[in-house]
Amino acid sequence: MKFFLDTAVVDEIREGVSYGLVDGVTTNPSLIAKSGRPFREVIEEICQIVDGPISAEVVSTDCEGMLREGRELAQVHKNIVVKVPLIAEGLKATRIFSEEGIHTNVTLCFSATQALLAAKAGATYISPFVGRLDDISHNGLELVQHILDIYDVYEFDTEVIVASIRNPLHVLDAARMGAHIGTMPLGVMKQLMKHPLTDIGLANFLKDWEATQKG
Q1: What local confidence, expressed as pLDDT, does residue 34 receive?
Q2: Tens digits of residue pLDDT in 23-53
Q3: Burial, 45: exposed, middle or buried (Cβ in 10 Å; 0-12, 13-18, 19+)?
Q4: CA distances from 164 to 49, 69, 132, 141, 182 (A)
Q5: For the whole prediction, is pTM greater than 0.85?
Q6: For the chain, which domains are there?
Q7: Is the pLDDT of residue 215 over 70?
Q8: Residue 83 annotated in active site
Q9: Given 2, 34, 78, 83, the catalytic residue
Q10: Contact between 89 and 109 (Cβ < 8 Å)
């Protein structure tokens, strides 16, 4: 399973990269806004830090606007993936991007049928939002399983990015299902490293080591 960081905060990305765990980055307009910096400046810096797919989202809601923005984004760096919303105009744009060799991440996916359409349109990645579904009492991970089942049956090349990850259990369940990628905040990635028995064991080892150094 590949790990992407879902952030536009450069310091968080540098920290994640220092652990050797970051395979890519996903951003969106909200995350860029939180960074407090110009959009293009942030994207260019992220591309210098991470050698992997970097998702940057279009903001137009019509196909022509998406194509114009997406083509501009694709010129920023070879690792740019154009993030497109899962609407009719987005599917049109995804098909054209696919024909032009521009990688896409179709986002805001909340149903398996939406994911099927994205794959048929030639999406490089599909991003089901598990946390947002959980928020409205739907099973987000069940959606991921349905998508994986459909993609397996029809041998689609589209990879599944499990998005809106809120906790380590989301990561665990997605990994057990065989999801290709999980994109998560740095805080969740750091939670994956933690276990109370690890902390207790390390404290005991250090205490015993100190005892051997006395006398």
Answers
A1: 85
A2: 999 999 889 988 889 999 999 999 999 999 9
A3: middle
A4: 23, 24, 7, 11, 9
A5: yes
A6: 2-212 (3.20.20.70)
A7: no
A8: yes
A9: 83
A10: no
